[in-house]
Structure to design on (193 residues):
């Protein structure tokens, strides 16, 4: 099962055991839930407004870190021709998802909820590509509580996949592209609210 590290506002480091993203029609929101190895659970609501702004940047950054990882491993001095970028992006997506576990049900029980039993409502999301082919995702609510996740390329790809499926279920008037966006120059950090 994939693992990654993140931190909450209290600077507590957590080792992630499981992550889920689902559209909840009764709330008209997408719910992100993260379980840590020590039994803690973090939950965050994403509104339509935030998802509309977040999705294109998340999809583009995940593709870019995947392609950068592939290029660093396979051919560090090579340049990818524009017509080959879409094929390389698809290949990196498939490679990253090869070992992902989308079948294990999300474990509902938690020994604690450091940010409270009710999911926090995301007011802004910061996306920062890291030099290590990882993506930092910082989610902040209106009270400035935050959840910070540092995602490997494989986990970032899984998050993009789960969010894309949730957006299709939500039917909010925009559809995520089925093909990953082409990789271009390195993306700067983004603040979305």
């Amino acid at each position: 099962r994939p693992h990654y590290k993140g931190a909450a506002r209290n600077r507590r480091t957590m080792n992630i055991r499981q992550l889920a993203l689902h559209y909840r029609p009764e709330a008209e929101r997408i719910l992100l839930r993260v379980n840590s190895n020590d039994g803690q659970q973090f939950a965050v609501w994403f509104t339509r407004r935030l998802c509309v702004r977040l999705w294109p940047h998340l999809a583009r950054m995940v593709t870019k870190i995947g392609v950068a990882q592939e290029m660093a491993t396979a051919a560090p001095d090579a340049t990818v021709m524009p017509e080959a970028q879409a094929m390389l992006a698809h290949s990196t997506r498939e490679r990253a998802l090869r070992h992902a576990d989308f079948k294990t049900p999300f474990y509902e029980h938690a020994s604690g909820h450091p940010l409270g039993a009710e999911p926090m409502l995301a007011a802004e999301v910061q996306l920062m590509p890291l030099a290590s082919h990882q993506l930092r995702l910082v989610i902040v609510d209106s009270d400035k509580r935050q959840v910070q996740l540092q995602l490997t390329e494989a986990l970032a790809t899984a998050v993009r996949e789960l969010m894309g499926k949730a957006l299709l279920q939500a039917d909010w008037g925009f559809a995520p592209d089925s093909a990953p966006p082409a990789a271009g120059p390195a993306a700067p950090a983004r603040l979305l609210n």
